[in-house]
Specification:
Oligomer: single chain
Protein name: Carboxypeptidase
EC number: 3.4.16.-
Number of domains: 1
CATH architecture: 3-Layer(aba) Sandwich
CATH superfamily: Alpha/Beta hydrolase fold, catalytic domain
InterPro entries: AB_hydrolase_fold, Peptidase_S10, Ser_caboxypep_his_AS, Ser_caboxypep_ser_AS
CATH topology: Rossmann fold
Pfam family, one: Peptidase_S10
Number of strands: 16
Structural class: alpha/beta
Helix content: 25-40%
GO biological process, one term: secondary metabolic process
CATH class: Alpha Beta
Largest sheet: 11 strands, mixed
């Protein structure tokens, strides 16, 4: 009897040991502290590298924030920033990460971190991934890997996901979504397609993929390229006379000028938009210290102008400076994608990312998040010119059609003041899929206020605009972004 009891006890302990080793995040990836933050994390944080190519030493960096609500039940969401070549720490630091970052006051000093009341980790487990290799903190030991494109990026990111879920098997049963913004309008559907194909072909582990979400995402050369001029006219940025002239000369299509008169008039449109912050036309653009002084509290300008771009974030978000997106009127074209320096800018136009740059290039921070030091992989940059990127996946319309036809849930959202990827283009291509409208265009509300408009289609497709928001919606409309994110993940009507 005693021998049987002992044997049973040993068997139970062995089983518990096995289960513990199977269903446990890697302790070596656990983040125990972060320079600049004093206090306790509201949930566990993990970070590190996942090798997607052993032979080349191609490693993708991730930062994983466990849900603050119910980690075992809440969805797992992958977040991707765009570019191509931009780090997903953009989303982590400036948009919906667990912290708000307060400048240290002196250039290069370590920022102070405060808990973000609108973090998307309030309702989901969220993975921030730097992809492809060469972006952010991701790297390869073989420089040939920095020549890449849409299809290779999607393949590597799929490999990352399979390996990541092997490391974190306790999250395999959770609903899984892929999300991102801007050029992630390409990353998200191409990766979603790879995930679905892997599921159908029996790739292990089996991901519980439910759908995807794209914010202000590029999608199609024609739809996106033809959206800017009508958007500018509708927003009162160009005169009705100029709009009628350019419409007539260009035959209503603007992304690829058909004659010299069309080209001349489009150049005039460009000139009239030149001093705008095209990522959010409500925000002032800071051209120089002199202009910043004009916009100070002592300014004689009306207070309504000085307050443009203010946010309900409890701490200031990054400053905006003069600049423009590329290429105007056609955010995505087939072939090689030019880098920012090739387009005449040493950094991403309209952004000042001093806080993120000083934090992620601090060696104590890198050590705390298990990232390689600068001496091995170089400095962190918001958007790198290290990669040579090819847009080789074509239009995203076929990807969206394939995925939604299989009833994977899709949310396409836009800030209604984004001139970089205007909502008018996104609205047009979602309608072009040909699905029946099952929820007619209507306002959606937060705290009894209209905060945007939405339209629902058959096959679980939803289009959404956020009132007064620009290209990076959660950055300047964090409460609204958390609201629609929470409702959509839960399947609740907006």
């Amino acid at each position: 009897m005693e021998a049987s009891t002992a044997t049973l006890t040993i068997s139970v302990l062995l089983l518990l040991s096995i289960l513990s080793s199977i269903a446990a995040a890697p302790e070596s990836a656990l983040i125990t502290h972060l320079p600049g933050f004093d206090g306790s994390f509201p949930s566990k944080h993990y970070s590190g590298y996942t090798t997607v190519d052993e032979e080349h030493g191609r490693n993708l960096f991730y930062y994983f924030v466990v849900s603050e609500r119910n980690p075992a039940q809440d969805p797992v969401v992958l977040w991707l920033n765009g570019g191509p070549g931009c780090s997903s720490f953009d989303g982590f630091v400036y948009e919906h990460g667990p912290f708000n970052f307060e400048s240290g006051g002196v250039p290069g000093s370590l920022p102070k971190l405060h808990l973000n009341p609108y973090s998307w980790s309030k309702v989901s487990n969220i993975i921030y991934l730097d992809s492809p290799a060469g972006v952010g903190l991701s790297y390869s030991n073989n420089s040939s890997d920095y020549a890449t494109g849409d299809l290779k990026t999607a393949s590597d990111s799929h490999t990352f996901l399979l390996k990541w879920f092997e490391q974190y098997p306790e999250f395999l049963a959770n609903p899984f979504y892929i999300s991102g913004e801007s050029y992630a309008g390409v990353y998200v559907p191409t990766l979603s397609y790879e995930v679905v194909k892997g599921i159908q072909e029996g790739a292990k582990p089996t991901l519980n993929f439910k759908g995807y979400m794209v914010g202000n995402g590029v999608s199609d050369t024609v739809f996106d390229g033809d959206a800017l001029v009508p958007f500018a006219h509708g927003m009162g940025l160009i005169s009705n006379d100029l709009f009628q002239e350019v419409y007539s000369a260009c035959n209503g299509s603007y992304w690829n000028p058909v004659n010299n008169n069309c080209l001349v008039l489009l150049s005039k449109v460009d000139w009239e938009l030149d001093n705008l912050n095209i990522y959010d036309i409500l925000e002032p653009c800071f051209h120089s210290p002199e202009v910043r002084e004009v916009l100070s509290e002592d300014s004689r300008l009306p207070s309504s102008f000085r307050k443009l771009g203010e946010t309900d974030r409890p701490l200031p978000v990054r400053k905006r400076m003069f600049g423009r997106a590329w290429p105007l009127r056609a955010p995505v074209r087939d072939g090689r994608v030019p880098t920012w320096p090739e387009l005449g800018s040493s950094s991403v136009p309209c952004t000042d990312d001093e806080v993120a740059t000083s934090w992620l290039n601090n060696e104590a921070v890198r050590s705390a998040i298990h990232a390689q030091p600068r001496s091995l992989i170089g400095a962190w940059e918001l958007c790198t010119n290290k990669i040579d990127f090819d847009h080789d996946a074509g239009s995203m319309i076929k990807y969206h059609k394939n995925l939604t036809a299989q009833d994977y849930r899709a949310l396409i959202y836009s800030g209604d003041h984004d001139l970089c990827v205007p909502f008018t283009g996104s609205e047009a291509w979602t309608r072009s899929l040909g699905y029946a409208i099952i929820d007619a265009w209507r306002p959606w509300y937060l705290n009894d206020q209209v905060v945007g408009y939405t339209q629902g289609y058959d096959h679980n497709l939803t289009f959404l605009t956020i009132k007064g928001a620009g290209h990076t919606v959660p950055e300047y409309k964090p409460s609204e972004a958390l609201a629609f994110y929470t409702r959509w993940l839960a399947g609740t009507k907006l």
